[in-house]
Amino acid sequence: MQLELDTPAIYSIRVAGYLDSSWSDRLCGLDIRPSSQEDGRVVTVLAGPVIDQAALAGVLSTLYNLHLPLLSVQCLGNIRIEEE
């Protein structure tokens, strides 16, 4: 399956800084896991399914508005939707 603008997919997004799980509903229900790095920096990983590229853009915009520097965005794979 090819990734398109309207294709659901699973993403992993890393940002510098702390974000608690209370933001999950605002961020497409992504799982939010902050962790301390060896150098003392805090990095938060958001992971899970995103319905389409517009929703992904909304997540990234929210992170930008929260002043959390983006470290990486990785598409981990498409989500296959069964046709009825």
Brief overview:
This protein has 84 residues and is α+β, with helices and mostly antiparallel strands.
Verbal overview:
The chain has 84 residues and is an alpha+beta fold. It has one domain: ACT domain (Alpha-Beta Plaits, 2-Layer Sandwich). The protein contains one helix and four strands, in the order βββαβ. It has a four-stranded antiparallel β-sheet, covered by helices on one side. β2 and β3 form a beta hairpin. The radius of gyration is 13 Å and the shape is globular. The two termini are 18 Å apart. The mean pLDDT is 91.
Draw up the topology in text.
Elements: E1 9-16, E2 31-36, E3 42-50, H1 53-65, E4 70-78
Antiparallel strand pairs: 1-3, 1-4, 2-3
